[in-house]
Structures are given as C-alpha cells and as structure tokens.
Design brief:
Layout: H1 2-28, H2 30-37, H3 43-63, H4 76-103, H5 106-113, H6 116-128, H7 134-151, H8 164-186, H9 191-212, H10 222-234, H11 238-249, H12 253-257, H13 263-275, H14 281-311
C-alpha cells in the first residue's frame, strides 16, 4: 500500500512539473504577443477585447467545474472584494502594462514588469507589518541595480533614462500587480471563480474608462482578434488554471514555483524570433540581477521563517 502511495506521489510530482513547464511556456510568449498585437490596435482597445476573451474562456472553464461560480450565492463582501481586486487587475495593472509595451521594446517592458516580487516585499512592510532584514535589503538592492541597468541601457555615467514615461509605467504596473497579489492572499475564495468575477469588474471599469475618455470600442480586424484571443486565453485565463493545477499536484510548492524564473529568459528568445528585436546585453544582465535578487530574498525569507519557528515556545 505504501509503495502504491509513493508511486502516486511520484506521478503527481511529474504532472506538476509538466503542467508548470507548460504554463511557463505559454506565459513566456505573452510579451511577443502583446507587442505584435499592438501593431494592429491601440493598447486600450487591446485590453478591452483581451479581458472579454479572458472572461469567456475562464467562464467556460469555471462553469464546467464542480465549484462553478453562482452570482446569486455570492455575498456583498464577495462583490466588494472583487470590485477592489478587479480595479487593480485586470484594469489598472494591464492598462498601465500595455501602455508600457506600446512605448518600450518588449524586452525592456517585460523585464521591468518582472520586478513585482521586489515591490511586493517593500509593500509587505506597511501592509502586512513585516520587517525587512539587512540581508533582504541587500537582495532588493541587487534587483534594483538590475532595474537601473535596464532603465539606463547600461549607461550609468550620464544616468539618462531613454523613455522615462515608459519605464515608469513598466515599473508602476509591478506596483499594481503586487497590490493585487496582497489582496489575493487574503481572499480565500475558489480561484477560478474569484478571478472570473475580478475580470468581470475589470471589464466594467474598462467600459467606464472608454466612456470617460469619450472613446468607443472598435471591433478589431482579424489579426487583432487573434491577438486578443491569444492574450485572453494564455495570459488571463487558461494558463492560470494550468499553473494552479501544477501547484495542487506538487508535493513541494516551492520547487514548482521556482520554475517561474525560467519564463522571462525564454521570453527573450520569443521576442527575438517573433518580434524581431535584437536582445541587448544590458537586458540579459539586468534580468539576471533582478532574478538573482528575488531568489536571494526568498532564501533569506525562508531562513528567517525557520528561525522564527525554532524560537517559538512550541518549536
């Protein structure tokens, strides 16, 4: 019996790795998909149709499951939580991020956006009442050097940021994603239903955005439709479900989660091949510094958690 249980755990762990790698592969193509789709439609139009596509795809997935979202069974708190979370993502996060992609090279926008785990650590101090040790601060500084390297294109002497607005938006999008992540950690609802309701609110905010700006949604041409469908499917809906299944199958969530650091490096390959950008040395060096800082910070955090556990009376 123990042998069969062991074999089942091994099989589940293999499934976890395969699903995680599949999700990473899909996510790694998004920077290229965004940049290519922007050739055929405005950034805000792209967001509107991508969110609508995501709602349709995720709605099908959610309603086909055993925990299908039932609007009439939701509490006022559920609606309020999704109204807040939907404002941060998909509305503000993607609106800012898509504009950053519109202004910057895909490699720069994508890598700068990847700084969100560092922003999350900084926000955890005032919002989650956590403390930052000097080791964590050192790790953050390493990532920050990577951000500076990319923002200045490696020119530290003049310290000139080529596109201040684009860089600010790319980093700003990381702020909104980190805020969304904090609210998401506090929300214990079923994931696909929660994300679906968040996206519905995000779509409503997009309609209000168009109304306030005096613009009208424009139905995209075929290439725009394909791009929006791709983004809605592989960025906003289906890939999240695959990733959640990978985490559920895995015996050790950390092992699977750490695979996500492959995504931005694979993304650079797609950006070069599909978009046609020449990948700069400062982009690779900056990305390495950002990821290195994130990994070091996580190692420090785990060490501190173990020490805190040992220092408790029960430890």
């Amino acid at each position: 019996m123990n042998y069969f249980c062991l074999m089942q755990k091994v099989k589940n762990q293999k499934r976890a790795y395969l699903l995680a790698l599949l999700a990473i592969l899909f996510w790694s193509t998004i920077s290229s998909a965004l940049k290519i789709t922007l050739r055929y439609m405005a950034f805000d139009q792209m967001l509107l149709w991508s969110v609508l596509s995501g709602i349709i795809f995720l709605g099908i997935i959610n309603q086909s499951g055993i925990n299908a979202l039932k609007l009439k069974h939701l509490s006022k708190r559920d609606y309020f939580s999704s109204a807040i979370m939907g404002f941060f993502s998909p509305f503000m996060y993607y609106l800012i991020l898509f504009k950053a992609y519109d202004l910057l090279e895909a490699q720069i926008a994508g890598v700068l956006n990847y700084s969100w785990p560092i922003v999350l650590v900084l926000l955890s101090v005032p919002m989650l009442k956590q403390k930052i040790s000097y080791k964590s601060l050192l790790a953050i500084i390493i990532s920050f050097l990577g951000i500076l390297l990319i923002s200045t294109r490696g020119n530290f002497e003049t310290f000139h940021v080529l596109d201040p607005l684009g860089v600010s938006l790319a980093i700003g999008s990381a702020l909104f994603w980190a805020l969304y992540w904090i609210f998401n950690m506090r929300d214990q609802r079923e994931d696909t239903g929660k994300i679906l309701l968040n996206m519905i609110f995000g779509f409503i905010y997009m309609l209000i955005y168009f109304l306030v700006r005096g613009k009208e949604p424009v139905f995209p041409d075929l290439k725009g439709i394909i791009g929006s469908l791709y983004i809605g499917l592989f960025e906003m809906s289906f890939t999240y479900v695959i990733w959640l299944k990978a985490l559920n199958y895995s015996k050790n969530v950390v092992r699977v989660s750490n695979l996500i650091y492959l995504s931005p490096f694979i993304a650079l390959f797609w950006i070069q091949e599909a978009v046609g950008e020449t990948i700069h040395l400062f982009t690779i060096a900056g990305l390495v510094l950002i990821v290195l800082g994130i990994i070091l910070q996580q190692i420090v955090q785990r060490q501190e958690d173990r020490l805190d556990l040992k220092s408790t009376p029960d430890g």
